[in-house]
Amino acid sequence: MTDEYNTLLASITKRCEAANQLHILTHLSDDTISQSDKLSFLQSINEIPLEKLASYLQGALDEEEKLKNFDPTNVAKEDMVEPFIGGLSTKDTSQQDTLKESNSIGMKAVSNGEVAALLLAGGQGTRLGYNGPKGMYDIGLPSKSTLFQYMSERIKKLGELSGKGAKAVPFYIMTSPLNHKATTEYFEKSDNFGIDVHFFPQGTLPALTSPDGKMILETQTSLAVAPDGNGGIYPALVKHGILNDMKKRGIKYIHAFGVDNALVKPADPTFVGYCIKKDADCGNKVLWKTSPDEKVGVVATKGGNPCIVEYSDISKEMSERRDVNGRLVFGAGNICNHFYTLDFMENVIVPNLGNMYHVARKKIPYYDEEKKETVKPTSNNGIKLESFIFDVFPLSKNMAVLDVARSEEFAPVKNPPGTSSDSPDTARMLFSNVAKEWVKKAGATLVGDLESDLCEISPMTSYNGEGLEKYKGKEIECPFSI
After folding, report:
1. What residues does 383 pair with on adjacent strands?
2. What is the pTM of this model?
3. Which of 31, 167, 244, 297 could disulfide-link 334, Cβ–Cβ 3.0 to 4.6 Å?
4. What is the SS3 string spanning 108-136?
């Protein structure tokens, strides 16, 4: 046994004993297991917050019990769900001056080097039928660009528009253990698309038995683990020194978003500027629900604090409630598009991370001591702990909400080609429609196949419809690629 192994074993044994998890070290005395496998196992355990697992689990079980016993006819004041009051809509023609001012404020922040883009890109393209990171998916437009490329080029263009060059906005990308290598290699081959990119992997947590919270061995020298949810972005930012890096760079504002929106506007100066103007510590870009039964969580307040309420937790009466203008009262649909100040992230979110995990009861493969093999159970036998990125919203003292046009800003890529919604086909159509609208607003006339879904304006040509003046008075034949 090497000194490294013995030192690590002593440290891990002490920590496991204190956490009541010594059972996971049972097989380290087995001489048939290689030294390298044992060392790798100890190194993996060393990454786990053993000291915090019990409190994470207890908090999640307490929440589960509270939800189970929830009585909608007798709601305590702190559990009262009310509509979120306030916010601004980009579709409100009377607010165009406010939007222009917000954009100017946001562009100034970009120019000052105060804005960072933060991408949640831990997912694989399994649901799409694609074998690889979802961000490497090509939705079928003429340029053959991937989701990663569109986002990177928009960031590059925004930097150029700010007058500070392509690297004005640092791009932080959260990967996962599943796709970190493939993602970083993809960007490396593309020379990071000429922008400033930084990668860090999302964390995992071990699966636990319930209610005693014992970690589950999947093999003799590996634990059953799972990603800790998209809320894992917060501990990952700390663990990998990303918040410290942002602070050193002078970053004040963070725009975070998911990888599967082909029309996302990274570091959107209007959204960022509106949040700055409102002196918000946290912000949410939303789409107003098209119907009461649309299955999307909504921004609301609970006990006076902002939160996301899942559609399944809203009563039929609440979901159908409308204001005097016929607009859904609980209609601010969440699309994983958020703003934070670095101060809020560092001094409010980080100190409260331990209170944000939820129970997901799952079938967890486990090592059977009698059979000497890994067994796949037929019923739920354990718990995975997960958190959501919006779990921190109740900590906000001043949240800003910006309601944007669905047709201009949301083209989700979730389902396989041929699916009627949220597929590469629907995203391509939405992307093409935006391109057509931009050239029409620039004064061009469209001819040819006006229904084509192969119309495209490169992000390097225009970030948000600007810079197309030369097409005024001209005919553009569809499909086109500009």
Report:
1. 208, 361
2. 0.91
3. 297
4. HHHHCCCEEEEEECCCECHHHCCCCEHHH
